[in-house]
Specification:
It is a single chain. Helices cover 42% and strands 21% of the residues. The protein has 462 residues and is of the alpha/beta class. Helix 3 packs antiparallel against helix 7 and helix 5 packs parallel to helix 6. It is globular, with a radius of gyration of 22 Å. Bound molecules: NADP nicotinamide-adenine-dinucleotide phosphate and magnesium ion.
Amino acid sequence: MKAHDGMYIDGAWRPAAGRDTIAVVNPADEQVIAEVPAGGAEDVDAAVRAARAALPAWAATAPAERAARIAALRDVLVARKDEIARTVTAELGAPLPFSQAVHAGVPVLVAGSYAELAASYAFEEKVGNSTVYAEPVGVVGAITPWNYPLHQIVAKVAAALAAGCTVVLKPAEDTPLTAQLFAEAVHEAGVPAGVFNLVTGLGPVAGQALAEHDGVDLVSFTGSTAVGKRIGATAGAAVKRVALELGGKSANVILPSADLAKAVGVGVANVMGNSGQTCSAWTRMLVHTSQYDEAVALAAEAAAKYGDRIGPLVNAKQHARVRGYIEKGVAEGARLVAGGPEAPREQGYFVSPTVFADVTPEMTIAQEEIFGPVVSLIRYEDEDDALRIANGTVYGLAGAVWAGDDAEAVAFARRMDTGQVDINGGRFNPLAPFGGYKQSGVGRELGSHGLAEYLQTKSLQF
Ligand code: NAP
Ligand code: MG
């Protein structure tokens, strides 16, 4: 596959300071498809300097002109959507139709939403005898994961550009080609040199150098809770702003009045999409004891139907990790009703769609994020029991509630300790704030709430 052998810094592709490289592997067949440079502290420093130099002019650019650049970026993402989808499929492994619809499609919606928000947001307001200005925070260090490689980038970069911030991006080592395509798109959209910069590299090297850099005003991180805690500590020690989008273990709560077949079917599909590598996936399905056996049969059937349509996991390490969790589930006494730990193919990092029944809330598979195509059915006795189980993890990113009518589902959702809940199969909304309660994170992405993360306020009194 096409790859740049440099970093995108100050509006051009420049050679890396060192010679280290990252091999990009296609997880469907385990073949190396490209190499990209693995940047270090020197590359990060050059990128941060470029971003800082570009900041005053970009921050002073009229919001309408920033909006026009973001709209142009959206148009490039539209024009190149097939190439984007093929690239995501090659380095992440997602089936092509999923890459087209979700990995290439959602970033277009999000970029479009920030083109509109940049033009319409009230960057200035009157409060009594004061004028309050929303000003850009400054230089953003963005660190992103591989699971939604373009979406995670666009959710940060489009919001930051709309706010008037400049950015240095360190994407995941597993998906650098999508990030390089994004840098090309930014360039084609006519975003001024230095406003967006890309340093590919390893987390503990380039990522850490970015998070620690004095010239970064805000670190926006999406990834694991373990790394997020370190980044939060580093940022806190330097009194830097920080936004953290971390892991999840979301509950899909099916109340007895719900359409059981629909709730189970949508719930299984929600977990299997992207091979279970979705931080907000509803990996715990909570079912009333009176409907439990029926739900188990429906879930097993839905998973079996999924069969071959599922892509591989992203890499060998995740493959081993997820299979290890499935073995642990069996060892702790959960009952496998679909899938299992055996690799379904000789080549590629595939795991079969897996359903566990008889899962109890304290089991490892009900507490820890598996990040694979594994759904656990947990039985509850009454609503309070369901709520206790739903809220009984360290996470609080997302969830779902199903009931006979929306009002009943809403009443339950309001008691959940979680940042986003889908009511009776509610649709994705690119303007709805996304982010976690508890250890799922700090801050929100998407929509005006996401834009506000990149703004700080100044008030003038008259
Ligand atoms: P990860 O290891 O935390 O990686 C995320 C990013 O951080 C990558 O770019 C990674 O670089 C970098 N990184 C790793 N160590 C670092 C360090 N010491 N300093 C600075 N940066 C560092 O997470 P992952 O395993 O790739 O991704 C899966 C996790 O992300 C899951 O737990 C999932 O729930 C979470 N996630 C959360 C959300 C959300 O919105 N809440 C969205 C997606 C994923 P490398 O690629 O080189 O490791
Ligand atoms: Mg990692």
